[in-house]
Design goal:
The chain has 343 residues and is of the alpha/beta class. Helix content is 36%, strand content 24%. It has 2 domains: 101 residues, Enolase-like, domain 1 (2-Layer Sandwich); 223 residues, Enolase-like C-terminal domain (TIM Barrel). It binds magnesium ion.
Length: 343
């Protein structure tokens, strides 16, 4: 029982469709348009909270069409506990409802203090592959970024590793790399990458094997000095529990927009915040602000994976951090109503 369980809220929503500036490669092929839904929950007194449904089916979430149908079925007034119960099992809808309720709670309480007040977190930036990579990293380093994320496992190992080494040699003081394979390697090539990574300042190799290769992922993580991170293999609290039970010794990348109920997620993170990276699901400012707030609340220290501003054109919906450091105040200043009004 939570204190707002019996509160009645009405749900409204608006769908959006944003083409990527550059198509995103996923395990299911090229992704060209991001579709999502902004959800607005209003109490009877004109207070509103916003959340965002930003599904990524390649990660095993519900699809956009199903989420849209769910929102349509939830339109109108109902109790908060009923809405929460109806969202259960739909990771993105549950995440959106939780975000909106958390904001609504703050608005109703006229809360002035922000999660992360007086604090800040570093931001990791994604560096494009190919010719542009060295210049892109230099520009980002000049702007103050120190954590650079690279996609690996797309080309042959030798060429790919040479390209990564070229960047690693040019890292600024204190700089480090995150290497993300998006589940695309097999065991021998994952081992080669982990051996390679141990010679450079690599924070972790992310999702080297497919999400269901649980035993091999655990073995890789145990056998190598470089940390291994799970991304595609982990959505929310239940997945984290399952991997913990298996003795997972590595890092968890969580995308709050795909993680279901925020409270359950926070509970799993609390015992060991150092093991967690908060990351973008390529959502708008609505989901991003909620996710970064949650990162402050969770007490994580690792760089946030929200340096993804280049994925979209200037359509006013935002969604990526452009600076190397984000403060609690910066996040609190983001107004989700602006995104809602612009749709
Ligand atoms: Mg990833």
């Amino acid at each position: 029982m939570r204190d707002d369980d019996s509160l009645e809220v009405s749900l409204a929503f608006k769908a959006y469709r944003r083409p990527f500036a550059v198509p995103v490669r996923t395990s299911r092929g090229l992704w060209t348009v991001r579709e999502g839904i902004i959800v607005r929950l209003e109490d009877g007194e004109g207070n509103a909270g916003f959340g965002e449904v930003a599904p990524i089916e390649a990660f095993g979430t519900e699809g956009f069409a199903g989420a849209l149908a769910w929102c349509a079925g939830m339109r109108g007034r109902r109790r908060v506990d009923e809405l929460r119960a109806a969202a259960r099992g739909r990771m993105c809808c549950a995440a959106a409802v939780a975000m909106a309720l958390r904001m609504l709670r703050r608005v109703r309480a006229a809360a002035t203090e922000s999660a992360g007040a007086g604090r800040s977190l570093p931001v990791a930036v994604l560096i494009p592959r190919g010719e542009a990579a060295v210049d892109a990293m230099r520009r980002a380093a000049d702007a103050g970024f120190r954590v650079f994320k690279l996609k690996i496992g797309i080309g042959a190992f030798a060429a790919d590793a040479a390209a990564v080494a070229r960047l690693a040699e040019r890292l600024p003081e204190g700089g480090r790399l995150r290497l993300d394979a998006n589940g695309g390697l097999d065991v021998p090539s994952a081992m080669r990458w982990l051996e390679f990574a141990s010679e450079w300042p690599v924070e972790f190799v992310e999702q080297p094997l497919p999400a269901d290769a649980e035993r091999d992922l655990c073995r890789l993580a145990e056998d190598h000095a470089t940390a291994v991170a799970l991304d595609e293999a982990v959505l929310g609290a239940d997945d984290i529990k399952r991997w913990r039970d298996r003795g997972w010794p590595g890092v968890f990348v969580v995308k709050p927009a795909l993680a279901g109920e925020a409270e359950a997620l926070l509970e799993e993170i609390r015992p060991d915040p150092d093991a967690f990276v908060f990351s973008s699901a390529l959502e708008t400012d609505v989901g991003m602000a909620a996710g970064v707030r949650l990162a402050f609340e969770a007490g994580v220290e690792r760089a946030l994976g929200y340096g993804v501003a280049g994925f979209f054109g200037e359509d006013g919906l935002g969604g990526g951090l452009r600076a190397p450091v984000v403060s609690g105040e910066t996040v609190s200043a983001i107004d989700p109503a602006r995104v809602w009004d612009s749709l």
